[in-house]
Specification:
By secondary structure, the chain is α+β, with helices and mostly antiparallel strands. The chain is about 40% helix and about 15% strand. The chain has 26 helices and 17 strands. The strands form four sheets. It has a six-stranded mixed beta sheet. A six-stranded mixed beta sheet has the order 8-7-12-9-10-11. It starts with 9 loop residues before the first strand and ends in an 8-residue tail after the last helix. Belongs to the AOR/FOR family. This is Aldehyde ferredoxin oxidoreductase family protein. Keywords: 4Fe-4S, Iron, Iron-sulfur, Metal-binding, Oxidoreductase. Its cofactor is tungstopterin; [4Fe-4S] cluster. It holds the Pfam family AFOR_N.
């Protein structure tokens, strides 16, 4: 079976300690089994990272992967995936990002660029279609993400005699160098920023003494098996896509603040309550930010939606910063009870520049503030721990990235901070498996209850999706909800392997695996997959992620749980008053979920199920 011409055909393995790299041909059977992107990232971690390796050990890898649709007419396949073992969860993690870097990587012909080992000194990795080089760059230490992207782009252009527009860089900031466990990566392009936000990719890169990865555009161009058919499919979805994404075009994801607050499902004050007053929500809403601060719309490559926005906040010295996403406004504003939008945007801009995940950082601050409220932390620990302290929020961003004072403890995340406090502190955690929850309520949305509990990544909304739940499906019922959660996990694994933007896929192609995805994949690859076979790809990838985590000892029934507040404290007021997920309800959903998946009672994939998914050789 030949590899379809939409694939570049090779993976590149970069040995950071020696500076050498080697090429590996992509097995056509693996392409059909795991597709690309998320699937290739999981395969790289499974094949190369020992089950007992610490996330900061040289044996961990950082895999940059793209998918079969990158560089084709298929809308918004401008995203890349970073796969690694997370320093937050100690399990498999993949984080996606947009911009132009993924499209540029595709042109090199390398579907995967996998970094192994540790560089002898602070360096950046330069990738072109001929291979890779590890370039010492100790003078980049301390630069922020934007500064690093600009400096590396200039150096590569000058040193290699290429056009600067052909150089695309993703970088860690000071937080990555300082091994802040939720340090992120940021890619700054001429079109818009892309952030690989969750899980700590920046910290893993920092542990490898790598400040940035630069890609020089190459000559590879994917060739769909039926380009005309693919273009017809794409053209037919443009109208529905633009109609369904109107809110994103106007406000980006920040437009979700008001509607989700009105549902009573927006966590506030470390999720003690799940609604703010209308006036407070409006103060940080996408509508207000658009009216008063947005300077331009920005977009990833090959995307008409332009959900990105730049903001300028003169009082804070922020010029054309990245607009805070809805998740960021949840983490840094409502959870910390700060509704000063200008200070919130300053804190978010600092997180982007210093290289920190705004969700985990914000929720960790909110956790610390509740611990302060309850007397578990005091002013001697930090003077910035009162709910509503906007100036303290900004100061804590700086201190966390540089591990100064209490910031050193915040840099470990809320779970490790809880472990060093009184056992009562665990009652105030808002997350699971070591990862702080995203903005979508595990009490107010039943699909998120079972979805978060079984998520490969922990408290991530990119496993089970909330979108259909906001439309009323499986939001307030457990009937059929475990199957719903599992099948949306297949959907997200598939989408991240195509590397299509989630907003575009849900808005234009369907919120479940549908015939449309089947037709597009077949037109691109020349395969003749059924819709069921397409969904099996997502299921196979999710099972591979679960296998990695089972082997690492972080995925069993006892870890498929939820935080104390979610299981024992109903939402106290508002439209969703009384909702929560008690332990017996979660246990019943887990039984149903495991049975649907063909896993055993402890949540381990069975040999029979793995064999049915053509995965028998991947289990220990």
């Amino acid at each position: 079976m030949d590899l379809p011409a939409v694939y570049g055909g090779e993976s590149l393995h970069v040995r950071l300690d020696s500076g050498e790299s080697d090429r590996e041909s992509i097995d056509s059977a693996d392409a059909r089994r795991f597709l690309g992107g998320n699937g290739f990232a999981a395969k790289a971690v499974h094949d190369h990272v020992p089950a007992d390796a610490d996330p900061f050990d040289p044996e961990n890898v950082v895999a940059f992967t793209v998918g079969p649709m990158n560089g084709t007419p298929f809308q918004s396949t401008s995203r890349g995936v970073v796969g690694f073992v997370s320093p937050q969860t100690n399990g498999f993690f993949d984080s996606t990002f947009g911009g132009t870097f993924p499209r540029a990587q595709k042109t090199t012909g390398f579907e995967s660029v996998v970094l192994h080992g540790t560089a002898a000194e602070l360096s950046y990795v330069l990738v072109d279609e001929d291979g890779a080089a590890v370039v010492p760059a100790t003078d980049l230490a301390g630069l922020d993400t934007y500064e690093t992207c600009a400096e590396v782009e200039t150096r590569v252009a000058e040193d290699d005699g290429v056009d600067a527009d052909d150089v695309h860089v993703v970088a860690a900031g000071p937080a990555g160098e300082n091994l802040v466990r939720y340090a992120c990566l940021l890619h700054d392009s001429e079109m818009r920023e892309g952030v690989a936000g969750r899980g700590g990719a920046g910290a893993v890169l920092g542990s490898k003494n790598v400040k940035a990865v630069a890609v020089v555009e190459g000559s590879f161009r994917p060739e769909p098996a039926d380009d005309g058919d693919l273009r017809d499919l794409v053209g037919g979805r443009m109208g529905p896509l633009m109609q369904e994404t109107e809110m994103l075009q106007n406000y980006g994801t920040s437009g979700l603040v008001n509607p989700i607050n009105e549902m009573g499902k927006l966590g506030r004050r470390n999720n003690r309550v799940e609604q703010a007053s209308r006036e407070r929500a409006e103060a940080i809403s996408g509508e207000r930010i658009r009216e008063e601060y947005v300077t331009e719309d920005t977009t990833c490559a090959n995307c008409a939606v332009a959900c990105g926005k730049h903001v300028t906040v003169e009082s804070e010295g922020v010029t054309d910063g990245k607009i805070p996403e809805f998740e960021s406004l949840f983490g840094t504003a409502t959870m910390t009870d700060v509704f000063d939008v200008e200070r919130v945007m300053k804190a978010n801009d600092l997180c982007d520049r210093l290289g920190m995940d705004t969700i985990s950082w914000g929720v960790s601050v909110a956790f610390a503030r509740e611990c302060y409220d309850e007397g578990l932390l005091t002013d001697e620990d930090s003077p910035h721990l009162a709910f509503g302290d906007a100036d303290g929020l900004v100061e804590l961003a700086r201190k966390t990235a540089h591990r100064e004072g209490f910031g050193d403890r915040l840099a470990e995340g809320s779970f490790r901070l809880a472990a060093e406090l009184d056992e009562e502190a665990e009652r105030y955690l808002h997350g699971v498996k070591g990862l702080e929850f995203a903005a979508h309520s595990p009490r107010g949305l039943k699909g998120m209850s079972i979805g978060y509990a079984t998520a490969t990544r922990g408290g991530s909304h990119h496993d089970t999706r909330p979108t259909l739940q906001y439309e009323g499906e499986h939001a307030e019922t457990t009937e059929g909800t475990p199957e719903f959660a599992a099948r949306t996990q297949h959907f997200t694994a598939l989408g991240d392997s195509l590397t299509q933007c989630r907003f575009v896929s849900e808005g234009g192609w369907g919120k479940r695996v549908t015939d449309r995805y089947r037709d597009a994949i077949n037109a691109a690859t020349g395969w003749e997959l059924s819709t069921d076979e397409v969904e099996r790809i997502g299921e196979r990838i999710y099972n591979l992620e679960r296998l990695i985590n089972v082997e690492r000892g972080v995925a069993r029934r006892e870890t498929d749980t939820l935080s104390h507040r979610v299981m024992h404290e109903p939402i106290p007021e508002g439209p969703s008053e009384g909702m929560y997920c008690p332990p017996d309800e979660l246990d019943a959903m887990l039984d149903e979920y495991y049975a649907f998946r063909g896993w055993d009672d402890d949540g381990v994939p069975t040999a029979e199920r793995l064999d049915a998914l053509d995965m028998a050789g991947l289990a220990d």
